[in-house]
Amino acid sequence: MALAAYPDPADPGGSRAREHPATPHAPPTTATDSTPPPAPAPHVPHARGSLAPTACMETLQVGYLHAVAAAAGCTLSQPFPDNGIDWHVSHSAPGHTVDDEVTIKIQLKATYQIPPQPPGPAFSFTLDNAHLAKLARTPVAVHKILVVMLVPRTQDDWLRAHHDRLDLRHCCYWTNLAGHPVTGRHRTTVRIPTSRIFDDRALCAIMTRVGAGGRP
């Protein structure tokens, strides 16, 4: 125990001292933070823009077309204003006989009402008669094809990015409607073959046939 000396009143010179226990100093205390850790943030859905879903579907399909054209070595141009044809696709190759560069016209359509991998050899798709008449016209100087994309109903399922690939769902199919009759009063149902998946190999094959003077 530590001792402290205090002066004695009877001993003003301080020759004697009385010993008193020194007040012990309390050891420093460490404040304990009893505040609980913050709760994890609640899951908040991705804040997608307010653009109409149909407009987003069109943009998604344009991205699909650009990817296919890039892989096929084609160039793209967009007519302005759009007069029933969305895109012109051109392909240059030394094997073409009609010209060193050939072009086709593409009309794009997208729908979420048809599930992926439709069964059977073809699925049905309905076109306005005015659109069908433009695609069905024959003979033509520049061939046209219709490309229909099947997309998931919700945008959350449209795209998946990975380190080694990009999944863009679901799939595009193409057909040549030259000579197809207009049968409905305002709209006509056409059949889209499920064997005609629209990818870079299909586009190269289309361009090779057109470059040789044939049809898509």
Account of the 3D structure:
The structure is a single chain. With 216 residues, the protein is α+β, with helices and mostly antiparallel strands. It has a single domain, classed as Trna Endonuclease, Chain: A, domain 1 (3-Layer(aba) Sandwich). Helix content is 19%, strand content 29%. The strands form four sheets. The chain has a five-stranded mixed sheet. Helix 1 (53-72) crosses helix 3 (200-211). It is globular, with a radius of gyration of 39 Å. The protein starts with a strand and ends in a 5-residue tail after the last helix. The model is unreliable at 1-7 and 15-19 (pLDDT under 50).
CATH architecture: 3-Layer(aba) Sandwich
Structural class: alpha+beta
Amount of helix: 10-25%
In DSSP terms, counting alpha (H) and pi (I) runs of 4 or more, how many helices? 3
Strand content: 25-35%
General form: globular
Model regions low in confidence, pLDDT < 50 over at least 5 residues? 1-7, 15-19
Please, how many domains? 1
How far apart are the termini?
Answer: 105 Å
Write the CATH fold name: Trna Endonuclease, Chain: A, domain 1
Query: What is the number of strand segments?
Result: 11
Given this structure, which CATH class is correct? Answer: Alpha Beta
Strand order of the largest sheet: 3-4-5-7-10
Order of helices and strands: EEHEEEEHEEEEEH
Largest sheet features: 5 strands, mixed
Mean pLDDT: 87
What keywords describe this structure?
single chain; 216 residues; alpha+beta; Trna Endonuclease, Chain: A, domain 1; 5-stranded mixed sheet; two-stranded antiparallel sheet; 19% helix; 29% strand; globular; disordered N terminus
